[in-house]
Amino acid sequence: xxxxxxxxxxxxxxxxxxxxxxxxxxxxxxxxxxxxxxxxxxxxxxxxxxxxxxxxxxxxxxxxxxxxxxxxxxxxxxxxxxxxxxxxxxxxxxxxxxxxxxxxxxxxxxxxxxxxxxxxxxxxxxxxxxxxxxxxxxxxxxxxxxxxxxxxxxxxxxxxxxxxxxxxxxxxxxxxxxxxxxxxxxxxxxxxxxxxxxxxxxxxxxxxxxxxxxxxxxxxxxxxxxxxxxxxxxxxxxxxxxxxxxxxxxxxxxxxxxxxxxxxxxxxxxxxxxxxxxxxxxxxxxxxxxxxxxxxxxxxxxxxxxxxxxxxxxxxxxxxxxxxxxxxxxxxxxxxxxxxxxxxxxxxxxxxxxxxxxxxxxxxxxxxxxxxxxxxxxxxxxxxxxxxxxxxxxx
Length: 395
What we know:
By secondary structure, this protein is an all-beta fold.
């Protein structure tokens, strides 16, 4: 196996005073670490790869060993031209697929045209990771790895296949066999969001029955009591223009779950308030959060500042369609988090800059990577691979 030098480390401290509800004012800071300046992947995953008690970072064909972020190869490394093309890694998820106690990697390639595979962690043996077919292709540009009601404690995959049907997937009895596919839509009534380059996919309880539904920008499939009993019923709804991950959350605290989206290739960050319209039909009223940057092709909703409310984390996918594609492709590759505040007067989203020379890809991770109980941000895209460790100090 080839040896690589330690990561280049840059420190970026960004302090902002915030106020949420009745909590005290405090400072939120991030320390930026550059793991790599090569274009490795547009997705990223986090797991304790070598089981040393520290969380490591995976980006396509390589993983970075904490705490010094030494790079190791999962498969033979390829060079990708950020200006002219794409990588072979758009979405990464970490999970112990074969249940041997070592975290494996799910890697989703170009939508619709390449197989979905999982790389088997060789554990103490080391070396390249054996590759297994998971499914023949994945359509829609924001596949989900999440939990559905009635499928057990392990997350499942959700994406469309063959430009034809929306479905969800779980491992079969033999871990090296392809995953089992369960249809959500039907071959006769295919529904939207199934084309390989469809934009917008999410999982969340939109109708309040306690079961996570599957959303695309044109509506949602209502989850049945047993998700294996498809097809699911599709309910048309307007969740706006082409977007990335679709997040479901009661933004304003009125008891109805709302929808949060970002613009994959144009400009916009939005939330859509759910209300009951004529004949008790669910309506989703759009509210713009930000219109200052383009290509926010990935989104995570999580509580950044510990006030009990979920905040938005997103940023610019640098050169999503190369240096001349989309809107303002050469603008700074920003990452922002938007602090949710509720008051009697309504909802406010306070924007805080994390960085302006990294951005997001098509999928990224926000989680506590260093064990201090504070969520950190981990991204990979055409700018490289990055970790932003959060610090908090009371004023």
